[in-house]
Every structure is written in C-alpha cells, then in structure tokens.
UniProtKB/TrEMBL annotation:
Its main location: membrane. Keywords: Membrane, Transmembrane, Transmembrane helix. It comes from Stygiolobus caldivivus. This is MFS transporter. GO terms for cellular component: plasma membrane. It comes from the Archaea. InterPro entries: MFS, MFS_trans_sf. The chain crosses the membrane at residues 12-33, 45-67, 79-97, 109-130, 142-163, 169-188, 208-226, 238-257, 278-306, 318-337, 349-368, 374-391, 422-441, 512-530.
Length: 557
C-alpha cells in the first residue's frame, strides 16, 4: 500500500476511536454509576458528572498547542505514536478500576484526563501527518475522509457504548486499549517523520501561561454550570468570577510574551496568512454554534421524545444514538465530496455554502414541536450534517496547506485548541441558556401537574438536575411516586408525566439556542468569503520532496 494511504488509514483509526470513546462514555454513564455504586442524584454528583463529560475536552484544549509545537521540534510521527500509547495505557487502567462511590469516579476522572493527553497528541498530529504525506491537490480529500472517520466514530460510539455497557462497561475501555495498542505498533512500523525536526528552543514561559490560562478559564466556565447558594447556576460565585478574570489576565500576559519571544509556541504571525486566519475564525464560530446543540439534541431525544413514545429510560441513550445516524450520514456523504471538489475548484464557495446550509438546518429544527414527526427530525439533522460536511474538510485543508511545512504541527495545535475551546465554551454556555430558561417555569409546571392528581407539594428541583437526569436516563420524580398510593403513583411514575412537565420550558431555551447558532453560522459563512481558498494545481507533497532530496547529488559530488 502506498505510504500516503497507510498514513490515512492509521490516522483515521485514531480519530475514529478518539471520537467514539467520548460518546461511548456518555451512553455508558448509567451503567458505570450503577456498577461503581455512585449516586448521580446526590448533591455533589453534578461536579463529578460535568468533569467526566468535559474533562477530556479541557485537557486537549489546554495542551494541543504545546503538543503541536513539541511535535515540530521532536517529530510529528514520533509524538503521534506516543499519543496512541498513552491513550491505550490510560484506557486499560480505567477498565481495571475496582473501587466504589466517589473515590472510584474520581479515579476515572483523573485517568480520563490522562486519556485526554493521548487524545490531544493524536488529534494535533493526525492532520499534520496527513499534510506531510499528501500533495496539496489531494489534501482536501484526505482530510475529508479522516474527518468522516471521526464523525462516524462519534455516532458509532453511541451504538457501541450502548451494546457493550449492557454486557459490561469495562469492555468499552478494553476495546480502546486493544485499538490503542494496535495503532501504536502500526504507527511505529509504518510512519516516519518526513520533515526533519526544527532546531529551535521551546517557549517554556508561553507554554505555561497558555496552559494555565486556558485551563483556568474552562474550569471556571465549567463550574458556572453548578448551582451556587440559592441560584440555579454558579455564574454569580466569586470563585467563578475571579477565575474568569484571572484567566483572561494570564492569557493577556501570554499574548504579550508571544509577541516578543524569538520562537513562540502560538505563532501569531501565522494569522497574517489570510486563509489561515479566516479558516480558523470560521471554524471557531462554527464550533461554538454546533457542539452545544449536538448535546442538547441528545437531551431532546433521551429526555423528551423517546420517553414520550414509550421507550424506557434505560434504553433511551442507545436509541438516541441510532436516531442521530442521519446527521452522521449527511456529514459522511458530503465530507469527502467537498474535499475532492475543493482540491479541484477551490474551497471558498464550498465552505460558505456549507455554513449557510447548516444554518438553514438549525433554523428548521427550531420550528419543530417537541413531539415532532420522526421523518422531519431525520431530514433536518441530515441537512445539518451535510452542511458541516461541506464546510469542514475544505476548511481544515486551507488551514494546513496555508502554513510553512516546519510550522504544521504548531498550526494544527492552534486549530485544535481554538476548536476544542469553542466546543467546551459552547456546551457550558448553551447549558446555561437552557437551565436559566427552565428555572423560571420548571417547578411550577411540575407542581401543577402533581396537583392535577391531588398531590400538593412544593418541589425545588434544580433545572440542572432535570437536564442531566434526562441525559442519563433517570427519572428524578421516581422517589416521589414511591411514597404515594399506587393508584396515583401509576400515573406519576411514567415517562410521559415527567416529559410533559419539562418539555415546554426546555424547548423555549432550545429554540433560542438554535436561532443563536443559526445567526453564528451565517456570520461565519460571510466571514468565510474573505479567504483565497485556492489549492488547485499545487502539486507535490512533503514525501515527494523528501524523496527527491534524498536522491539529489550533494555538493561536491
């Protein structure tokens, strides 16, 4: 097999398992909590839950730029193989957790952070390795196929996680372990560093400032989702406020250092390249618009539509994964096609069209009632996926092809850091919008529904608890029903009762988010028109140049 296709196959497996792993855990959380005897309804459970979901993303966001720079200095293929190994080892250790309760979940969170280190190394180097191996006029196709592998992995993770968690949730991490080991051995044997490592010093001060600043920012934003005192959210907490302010001060100091240091880790001069800057900012806005919505679509399916149609909470995660397949198919159908077309005709029209198509999909979804027709949801989610497929691969190809070869690792790290930070912020901010909207009407709606059966209680169910209960497949009203007469409990202890109470308030916030996302995507689409987006006819790649250099006569021969 030609070396470039070996590189594509190996990196696609890495991206597949990295994305699958993230969603397998979300689906398996109920079984994991049950096995580890962890109570997800306890007062401190939300903190553990948020870190299990977002911790991996926080680590990759804070470290991928550093990893990209180190890869330029030490070798991309080498660091890529190390990433596979770290991912495999951490996965094996997670599968071996034997404790119970908070201690066991804390162990899992810590190991997930180490898994994020491996995932970050894979993420930042896979695109750089492909850019080294493929000529520019085939780069869009290669990155498109690679991204499709990631999206397929994300949806497949929902299905695989649903199946394996029924048997034993540890099999999920054993699968990661086996794939990680195979990927490690294969990458060591088949991939080599095309570009000689750059002989420069590492910007230690800049790396530390960025890692501390972005980590503190994301941690502060994450804890903004937790209740504070009598408030539904923690944005008023002095710790959250001071954390955000301090993180911005540190990031400001980081920018000042990067402007003066000789060999910066975050090479701000790259933003003088039009395609690099436009493609990165477009991707940042698109990630802000998309990631939070995808998680909320899971909440809509798992917490509202599926229970409303008689699916038990224990099965809703699995079926929610299946119902998101049309979104994956839209991306899979248009991603490679868009990459190939951008290689031939340029990327500007495709990226802009893709963002506009996604915006249309988001707007159409906002028009659906919570008890929608399934075919309507499938068609709209396909449109959303197709639009992102049109946008993603040409956009990434523009980022990677626009920078000098010796800075591809750093460029890929900058891209991944901006994208992951936007995704984490998107999840936190969109959850905040929905929780804030629900907090005004949730308890009054539940009290009114209970009163219709002669039950008069004054509940104080936090909106965050309702959201995460729906996501995990728990009914937080089950405890109330168990204390009532059987004739009344039979009506209350049903998915339909809880859904009817939370659906209207959830949908008001959900629609607001969809409209905000649609506007962001239109803005990103307009911004995308500013790029050059021309890679047509630019023949040759790093492999070919390296081979020619090896065969060329040396001076004095």
């Amino acid at each position: 097999m030609e070396s470039k296709w070996i590189a594509l196959s190996n990196t696609s497996i890495a991206i597949f398992i990295a994305f699958a792993n993230y969603n397998m855990i979300i689906i398996a959380l109920p079984e994991i909590f049950n096995s580890l005897k962890f109570n997800p309804t306890s007062p401190d459970a939300l903190g553990y839950l948020i870190w299990l979901i977002l911790g991996y993303m926080v680590v990759t966001s804070s470290l991928v730029v550093t990893f990209g720079r180190i890869s330029d200095l030490k070798g991309r293929a080498k660091l890529y193989s190390i990433g596979f190994l770290v991912f495999a080892i951490s996965s094996g250790l997670i599968s071996a957790i034997t404790g119970y309760g908070n201690t066991a979940v804390l162990e899992m969170i810590i190991l997930r952070l180490f898994q994020g280190v491996g995932g970050g190394l894979l993420m930042v180097n896979s695109a750089a390795v492909l850019t080294d191996y493929f000529p520019k006029n085939e780069l869009g196709k290669a990155l498109g196929l690679n991204q499709v592998a990631g999206l397929v992995g994300g949806v497949a993770g929902l299905i695989i996680g649903g199946v394996l968690s029924v048997i034993d949730w540890r099999y999920i991490f054993l699968l990661d372990f086996v794939v990680g080991l195979v990927g490690t051995v294969w990458s060591i044997k088949s991939l080599r560093d095309i570009q000689k490592p750059v002989k420069q010093t590492l910007d230690v001060i800049g790396n530390v400032l960025f890692a501390v600043g972005i980590t503190l920012l994301l941690i502060s934003v994450t804890y903004g989702l937790l209740p504070y005192g009598s408030q539904q959210l923690g944005w008023g907490s002095p710790y959250v406020i001071s954390g955000i302010i301090l993180s911005l001060v540190i990031l400001g100091a980081f920018i000042a250092v990067e402007r003066k240091v000789k060999n910066p880790m975050f090479d701000l001069s790259l933003f003088k390249i039009r395609d690099f800057s436009v493609a990165n900012f477009s991707n940042f806005i698109a990630s802000m618009a998309r990631q939070g919505i995808l998680l909320m679509m899971l909440v809509l399916l798992q917490g509202i539509w599926l229970p409303l149609h008689g699916i038990p909470y224990s099965q809703t995660p699995f079926w929610a994964g299946l119902y998101l397949i049309p979104n994956m198919l839209g991306f899979a159908a248009l991603g490679p096609v868009s990459g190939i077309l951008s290689d031939k005709y340029g990327s500007k029209v495709l990226t802009t069209l893709g963002l506009f198509v996604s915006a249309l999909g988001f707007f159409l979804l906002s028009l659906l009632p919570y008890d929608f027709q399934l075919w309507q949801f499938f068609a709209i989610s396909f449109i959303m996926g197709a639009g992102m497929g049109l946008f993603s691969s040409p956009n990434m190809a523009d980022i990677m092809a626009s920078v000098p070869i010796q800075k591809r690792g750093a460029a890929s790290g900058m891209r991944a850091s901006l994208q992951n930070s936007a995704s984490a912020l998107s999840v936190a901010l969109y959850f905040s919008v929905v929780i804030t909207g629900m907090s005004y009407t949730l308890n009054s709606s539940i009290d009114k529904a209970l009163a219709s059966y002669g039950v008069h209680l004054s509940l104080n169910l936090p909106a965050a608890v309702a959201i995460f209960s729906a996501l995990l497949g728990y009914d937080p009203l089950a405890g109330i029903a168990s204390s009532l007469p059987a004739s009344i409990a039979s009506h209350i202890d049903t998915p339909t009762f809880f859904v009817s109470a939370i659906a209207p308030s959830f949908m008001s916030g959900f629609r607001l988010m969809l409209n905000i996302s649609a506007v962001l995507l239109v803005v990103s689409g307009i911004l995308s028109l500013a790029r050059k987006g021309v890679r047509v006819g630019e023949m040759g790649n790093s492999v070919e140049r390296a081979q020619k250099a090896e065969k060329a006569p040396t001076d004095g021969s």
